[in-house]
């Protein structure tokens, strides 16, 4: 097995050596290199989306180590001073950046460099540019496996750039939902850079605004007024008829299905109570963790244990008022002995004692 090599640097400002733009690269777009394309995407597109880009380089083949290192150094030496470049150090980080550029030579290299990536912060929307420096023999299979690895951790905006023997430097991505296939990670050609850099409008196309009538499996907990169901809730078979869903979240779900063009596959209602206890899940949460369903609704609130397992949605309602309730003052055993009653109770007791003494 080849030696594993990691390049670790931290760079806050780079003085540009050359100027690479769409204008001065158009005349030689037929023979653009991976470095020129990557630098163009970072300087002309990503710079409008973020101020920081994380670069990560890893090789598993001795023959491509020099190529990867040269590509990394080329990008670093020609970056614009307006963007910050940080090299990924393969360590745990609680606040990862959102834009990553991976320079790898194989599927194995990407797996190894991605293994230590922080995956439990589902609320972050990551965007990856993967520069594949060696064209693989099983091209479609390798790209599909790389996309599957990204999708496993909810990374949808992923592009793989490689030097195709027939099309030249090209960019591929995957679309989960299409008219023919639902949840597909098959590679799709996004752009051929031989057509010119000036024609590229968007690096990361919109993928989650049309689900192409794909079904979403939904588990739910009946709790009015958030969710109600007009039908037999004890039916052991998949209910399917989501038109009988009502309530705040039921109506919201149906509106989302209409807006985003997906269908609702309503599953049987769980018998167990739904909650998260440590690493164990129950009810709707268990079905969600076991990948039996895609979505759980029914007035579920986010908690620290659940956010390490699931991806919560944003609140659909925020009250304009903030209520502050004073907590009860805790008393120790001695205080409880000396003050068993409140002042009002003591007054009532004293009144009864005075009345009893007066009568006798």
How is the CATH topology of the largest domain named?
Rossmann fold
N-to-C order of helices and strands: EEHHEHEEHEHEEEEEEHEEEHEHHH
Which segments are poorly predicted (pLDDT under 50) over 5 or more consecutive residues?
1-30
The end-to-end span amounts to 103 Å
The first-level CATH class of the largest domain is given as Alpha Beta
Query: Helix amount, in percent?
Result: 25-40%
In CATH, the architecture of the largest domain is 3-Layer(aba) Sandwich
SS content category = alpha/beta
Number of helices: 10
Q: How big is the Rg?
A: 29 Å
Residue-averaged pLDDT: 79
Taken from the alpha-carbon principal axes, the silhouette is elongated
The number of distinct structural domains comes to 2
Give me the count of strands: 16
Summary?
By secondary structure, the protein is α/β, with parallel strands linked by helices. Helix content is 28%, strand content 19%. The strands form four sheets. Strands 1, 2, 3, 4, 5, 6, 7, 8 and 9 form a nine-stranded mixed sheet that branches. Strands 13-10-16 form a three-stranded parallel sheet.
Q: How would you describe the overall organization of this protein?
A:
With 360 residues, the chain is an alpha/beta fold. The protein folds into two domains: 5-199, Rossmann fold (3-Layer(aba) Sandwich); 215-307, Periplasmic binding protein-like II (D-Maltodextrin-Binding Protein, domain 2). It has helices at 22-25, 34-44, 62-77, 107-115, 139-152, 247-260, 284-289, 304-307, 333-338, 343-359, and strands at residues 5-6, 10-11, 52-59, 84-87, 99-104, 127-132, 157-164, 168-173, 188-192, 215-220, 228-229, 245-246, 263-266, 275-277, 280-282, 295-297. Helix 2 (34-44) runs parallel beside helix 3.
């Amino acid at each position: 097995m080849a030696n594993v090599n990691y390049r670790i640097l931290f760079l806050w400002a780079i003085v540009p050596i050359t100027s690479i733009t769409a204008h001065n690269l158009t005349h030689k777009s037929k023979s653009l290199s991976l470095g020129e394309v990557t630098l163009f995407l970072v300087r002309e597109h990503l710079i409008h989306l973020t101020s920081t880009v994380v670069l990560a380089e890893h090789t598993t083949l001795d023959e491509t180590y020099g190529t990867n290192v040269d590509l990394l150094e080329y990008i670093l030496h020609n970056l614009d001073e307006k963007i910050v470049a940080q090299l990924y150090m393969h360590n745990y980080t609680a606040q990862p950046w959102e834009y990553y550029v991976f320079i790898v030579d194989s599927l194995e290299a990407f797996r190894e460099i991605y293994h230590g990536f922080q995956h439990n912060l589902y609320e972050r929307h990551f965007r990856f540019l993967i520069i594949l420096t060696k064209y693989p023999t099983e091209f479609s299979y390798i790209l599909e496996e790389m996309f599957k690895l990204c999708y496993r951790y909810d990374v949808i905006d992923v592009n793989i750039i490689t030097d195709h023997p027939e099309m030249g430097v090209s960019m591929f991505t995957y679309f989960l939902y299409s008219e023919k296939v639902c949840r597909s990670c098959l590679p799709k050609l996004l752009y051929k850079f031989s057509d010119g850099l000036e024609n590229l409008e968007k690096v990361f196309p919109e993928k989650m605004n049309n689900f192409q009538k794909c079904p979403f499996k939904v588990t739910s907990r009946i709790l009015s007024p958030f969710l109600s169901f007009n039908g037999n809730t004890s039916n052991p078979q998949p209910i399917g008829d989501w038109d009988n869903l009502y309530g705040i979240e039921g109506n919201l779900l149906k509106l989302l299905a209409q807006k985003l063009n997906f269908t609702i596959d309503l599953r049987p209602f769980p018998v167990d109570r739904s909650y998260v206890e440590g690493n164990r899940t129950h009810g709707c949460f268990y079905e969600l963790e076991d990948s039996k369903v895609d979505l759980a609704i029914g007035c579920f609130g986010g908690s620290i244990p659940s956010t390490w397992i699931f991806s919560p949605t944003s609140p659909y309602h925020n009250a304009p008022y903030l209520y502050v309730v004073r907590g009860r003052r805790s008393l120790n055993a001695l205080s409880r002995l000396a003050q068993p009653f409140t002042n009002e109770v003591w007054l009532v007791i004293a009144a009864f004692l005075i009345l009893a003494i007066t009568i006798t």
